[in-house]
Amino acid sequence: MDRAIIAILRGVTPDDILPIAREILDAGVTKIEVPLNSPDAVESIRKLVEAHGAEALIGAGTVLSVADVEAVHAVGGKLIVSPNCDPEVIARTAELGMESWPGIFTPTEAFAALKAGATGLKLFPGNMAGPGGMKAMRAVLPKGTQVFAVGGAGPENFDQWVDASADGFGIGSAIYKPGMSAADVRAKADAIVAAYDKVLP
């Protein structure tokens, strides 16, 4: 099952990435983002692609420049997630055949992202917009636009977000924080998958 969940492993190191990712994949989450403000993030992405590129969508978060996009592409990453809407970053991502998920918070940003070639939209920070903000924006977005809630979305409120039309989620500290053991990550990932499967079976 290809669940619409992106695991955000902010702060993970190249030494820890493989055992953490293995537990997340085994739990049933097959999209993994390593934010570029993590230690040696591109190396972590390279290791992930080498080990799991055939079974997972792997890439980077906190991508702020075209140079970042190209660095991730060079090691085989196929997913680019940003906290902001930068048309140049989006366009280069699309040119390279990678998935582009820029952060948006307003209809203006949403339409600019789609015009630039975004694969889907990341409503961020989700806890500021809330499910009500997503529902209101959905009324004007083109039919079929994929919107993920990121920040403030978790197993305790997946149902509220889905009711507001969320297509998926980016999950950060609810699935991983630096220093957590692989077993801890697996327990959190299992709980997230169970909650997700109840609302998006």
Automatic annotation (TrEMBL):
The keyword Magnesium does not apply. InterPro entries: Aldlse_KDPG_KHG (IPR000887), Aldolase_TIM (IPR013785). The keyword Lyase applies. Keywords: Carbohydrate metabolism, Lyase. Pathway: Carbohydrate acid metabolism. One of its GO terms (molecular function) is lyase activity. Transmembrane segments: none annotated. Pfam families: Aldolase (PF01081). SUPFAM superfamilies: Aldolase. Homotrimer. Belongs to the KHG/KDPG aldolase family. This is 2-keto-3-deoxy-phosphogalactonate aldolase. It comes from Shimia haliotis.
